[in-house]
Amino acid sequence: MDISQYMGMFLEESREHLQTLNNCLLDLENDPGSLAVLDEIFRSAHTIKGMSATMGFTTIAELTHEMENVLDLLRKGTVPANDDITDTLFKCVDTLEQLVENVASNSDNPIEIKPLISKLTAIARGDFSVAPKSQTVQPVIDLSEQEVSLTEPIKLDDTESNVVKAAKKQGMECYEVHVNLREGCLLKSARAYMVMNALEELGEVIKSIPAVDDLEKENFDYSFQVVIVTGVDSDRIENAVTSISEVENVIVASSVNLANVEKVSQNVSSQAASVLIDNSSPKSVRDKAEKVSANESNLHLADKKLKSGQSVRVDIDKLDSLLNLVGELVINKTRLEQIGLTHRLAELVETIEQMDRVTTDLQAVVMKVRMVPVGQVFNRFPRMVRDLSRELNKEVNLIIQGEETELDRTVIDEIGDPLVHLLRNSIDHGIEQPSERQAKGKNPVGEIRLIARHEGNNVIIMVEDDGKGINADIIKQKALEKGLITQAEADKMEQTEAIRLVFLPGFSTADTVTDVSGRGVGMDAVKTKIESLGGMVDVETKINEGSKFKIRLPLTLAIIQALLVKVCDEIYAIPLGSIDSTINITPENIKTIQNQEVILLRGQIIPIVRLANVLHSPDTCAHNQDELFVVIVHMGEHRAGIIVDTLIGQQEIVIKSMGKLLAGIKVIAGATILGNGQVALILDVGALKQ
Length: 690
Fold this sequence. Notes:
40% of the residues lie in helices and 22% in strands. By secondary structure, the chain is an alpha+beta fold. Strands 14-18-19-17-16-15 form a six-stranded mixed sheet. A five-stranded mixed sheet has the order 6-8-9-11-10. Strand 8 and strand 9 (458-465) form a beta hairpin. The two termini are 64 Å apart.
């Protein structure tokens, strides 16, 4: 079977189950006796084992199998869930993540699992008594004992009895087949399927104990029973089953002595059969997968359905392609609007209005499909916080709020690293040691909050801690020592400005470089990445009370509303989400304070930026000096006014990348195509400085 077509699904589902393992192990640390958590851990490990065995990744299957042995003891209460065991299980999850990523990157770099296997085996067999054997579901005969009584036949219901009677009339035999698998068998359900398949080739299976669902889910020990009607003798049945690997022994008992007759038809009676796998559609993708390991794989290969049953997995590249097509549709719709207005074609204008409604709805649906809960990023942080706080000998409680808040997939994929930097910064620099916190009258356990919420057309993500806060004087001193600012600049710098120095390249307050911090690249990388996403980051702090890093991100990076403005003969677009208002002023309204042009707006001093100067427009451009148009924009908590020549109006625009050649140009965030085919540059409000 060609498994390459299922690789993407294997990787995606494996990563989901590994994340579940991480989250549940964290819950297990807080509540070691929770059977619900242990069951969830066991299910995820079991599913990974089945999927990896199906795909032929034996190392992953072997490690998860050994994990199951320990998890089974934990579920039975034979072994307590102490720190040593949970640490070992965490190491197993980390190793599984490496193995899965090796598969993803097609790496042949070997990862040693023998030490973990030995550790798991020691936990299962070492200082603890051997766990009692679990009882077979619906036990009829205990095949773990050699003395087996076959005097009592398996009880059949009326429908099954009718099938047996019909078989007897045709001269067939009814057998009870008792199968015992080798203890420690890696894939019990797969072996059960192979047994059932072998029996179906010889006759008609009419009942199994345990039931089919239990066999598929491995809800049995190492033995099961099957009732079969067939025209072959018992020796042939025994030979067919014992030829299957990992079958310890098989006992075939005849209920009624009947003469051998012709082989029963392979078609299973719809009224009586209790068949494990439907083999009637050999071309089915699901059947092909199940022939390897029955229902063990849990890959949903046939229809790619999610657990909800009403969702489908779609490759992100296909969504990107769909979004690009919608973008082209929006561009051409705008072009048609321009043609209709220019030539005064009433019928065309009316049609375009209807088209506008359709494209708007289509755009909304596509954008909604691309929206992903930020919880997909947030859910990997509890484990990171746990490990880092242990490494630093600190006690930290991470509280996550608003994980259901949705962001565009493009943004989701990029915000992980900035949040890692902020969380590590809070744990290392913000949260004090337990003894220091107690001396300040604080709870020895520090608290970090990771919060997400919608705010207009933006998503706000905040990382808050109740640590020692940021001392502005220390920040200024460190910046001076590193030559990032001058003494004159430091003297006139306000507290809030000084705190923002943490975002400068090369800045760090750490005295020594460690694995956690001290290299001066973290906060600068955060600011650069957030701004590249069209967002902003700011910080608030109070000494001994804590710090709050606030990230503002656009909901999407694809299609936005913008205000079109003109400077000289060029048209520019300003994202509407960054605009507060537009006003008209006269040159007399402009004042100069400390070499900075400002205006007074409703009692607030607003610095202004002449866009023509920032963009180095030619001096030959004629500017209307009698009346100036000002666009008031906000950059985080701050506002500024942008002076332009003309306000054109609001328009929906499709953001296009500038390409590698023009990437990194300050002030310009991208480009768009207007209705007349002209290219307009999109301004980066955060980078507009005179």
